[in-house]
Amino acid sequence: GGNNAGHTIVVDGVKYAFHMLPSGLVNKECVSVIGSGVVVHLPSFFQELEELEAQGLDCDGRLFVSDRCHLVFDFHQIVDGMKEGELGRGSIGTTKKGIGPAYSSKASRSGIRVHHLYHPTEFAKRLRTIVAARFRRYGEFEYDVEAEIQRYVKLAERLRPFVIDSVEYLHKALGSGKRILVEGANALMLDIDFGTYPYVTSSNTGVGGVCTGLGIPPTRIGSVIGVAKAYTTRVGGGPFPTELTDDVGQKLRDVGAEYGVTTGRPRRCGWLDLVVLRYSNMVNGYSSINLT
What we know:
With 292 residues, the protein is of the alpha/beta class. The chain contains nine helices and eleven strands. The protein has helices at residues 42-54, 74-87, 99-107, 120-138, 145-159, 166-175, 208-214, 247-255, 274-284, and strands spanning 7-11, 14-18, 32-34, 39-40, 63-66, 70-71, 163-164, 225-228, 231-234, 268-271, 288-291. It has a three-stranded parallel beta sheet. Strands 1-2 form a two-stranded antiparallel sheet. It has a two-stranded parallel ribbon with strand order 4-6. A hairpin with a 2-residue loop joins strand 1 (7-11) and strand 2. Helix 4 (120-138) packs across helix 5. The radius of gyration is 19 Å and the shape is globular. It starts with 6 loop residues before the first strand and ends with a strand.
């Protein structure tokens, strides 16, 4: 995923809002890596980082970004809104953060990755080409490609200290005996293959994403911890068999503060769906479950 997911972390009475950055940053002993399976909107990356640092988190030297990450551009977000508009009443209910269109670019092999930023001629060529293709598909929407190229020249230099070869970095960590905790942003039922398609996100959110999103082989995966709420929530469209649309559902929403960190939308709430939980365990093979 990208900055379409939101997590609220409370530490020592301080509330932190995470969207794209790993929540491990709250632990001063932890080094955080955004893996190659993540799509990154650089302006949002720096905004979130600034907000966390303003709350007292020292992230210096503790946050890195894979050079293989695909980039989300503002035109992806514009296209995301257009696609939702085309679907009308059958819309997915995305956050309109451009995540789906960015993964579409990745899958069609026309996407732009972090490492392209450091080859300015190639970067500019790729951006002009992909935007021209979107103009042919959606018409000439308002988007200044040349201004965006210049904007990203500056963002690239700002990002440079964060960029690493994440595969080499993680395998060196494994080789030296360090422990790696992989954080999943979205639940299994939003997995593009095993979730409630088409009401899903655009990537693999199950344990398989550890391998495809980080380059860690399955033989190196130890414990798999399933995190589940004592009730069920959902944001956006899609099936929800145990949904409560009455006062009980509203009570769950209010007591659990179930409002999207990213969008502010009220989350749909309902009883714990044990059928879904069993299915999730079937696919992911949990070593244990953390019921929150």
